[in-house]
Design goal:
Layout: E1 6-12, H1 21-33, E2 38-44, H2 58-69, E3 72-78, H3 86-94, E4 103-110, H4 116-128, E5 132-133, E6 138-141, H5 143-146, H6 156-182
Length: 188
């Protein structure tokens, strides 16, 4: 019997005008689509209009529902001023219990660091939200130069990192789903 694919939600974090995040997210989604062990959906924060005061809204309800249905999450995030965007922090703070016990991976992009400083900050926040941050991540230094006009990249290190990250996400998602079937995550 073949196990069901892991339900993965890919979160596009940037909401800035002329953002580059959708290009990176589409590349990653195509990478995931090559695998049969994941069922991926994309959640673009620009579509949710999340209130910064965390008050209830339709966007917040949609976010909570999407994260609640996911077994694993990947945040596609830029690095702005050595950190991750405020839109992603609002999204992380909007959801409470639905993050808990889930694995999260990161695909980052930016200048010379490729967004790695944002990823390292996000690992701290993920831990506080009771998520498991997988070790491997994907980074695109000078991202606008890393992709061609069709949204493809020849960055072999990124492709290899994506494979390793997805393998880890799959393992953790499977383990946490099995554990939750026996006992709910503590602290809920």
């Amino acid at each position: 019997m073949t196990p069901a694919p892991v339900r993965l939600t890919v979160v596009v974090a940037s909401v800035r005008p002329e953002r580059f995040g959708p290009v990176v997210a589409e590349w990653f989604s195509r990478t995931v689509a090559e695998r049969s062990d994941f069922e991926a959906s994309t959640l673009d924060l620009i579509d949710l209009d999340l209130p910064i005061d965390l008050s209830p809204s339709q966007g917040a309800e949609a976010l909570v529902s999407a994260i609640g249905a996911a077994q694993a999450v990947v945040a596609v995030t830029p690095e702005y001023n050595h950190g991750y965007p405020a839109s992603l922090k609002v999204a992380l703070d909007t959801v409470k219990y639905e993050w808990r016990g889930k694995p999260i991976g990161f695909v980052s992009y930016g200048g010379i660091s490729g967004g790695m400083r944002a990823t390292e900050q996000l690992r701290q926040v993920a831990a506080e939200l009771h998520m498991v941050s997988v070790r491997d991540s994907v980074a695109f230094p000078r991202a606008r130069r890393a992709f061609d006009e069709q949204g493809c990249t020849s960055n072999e290190a990124a492709a290899d990192s994506a494979t390793r990250m997805l393998d880890q996400l799959h393992w953790w998602a499977t383990a946490s789903t099995m554990a939750a079937s026996v006992r709910p995550y503590p602290g809920q």
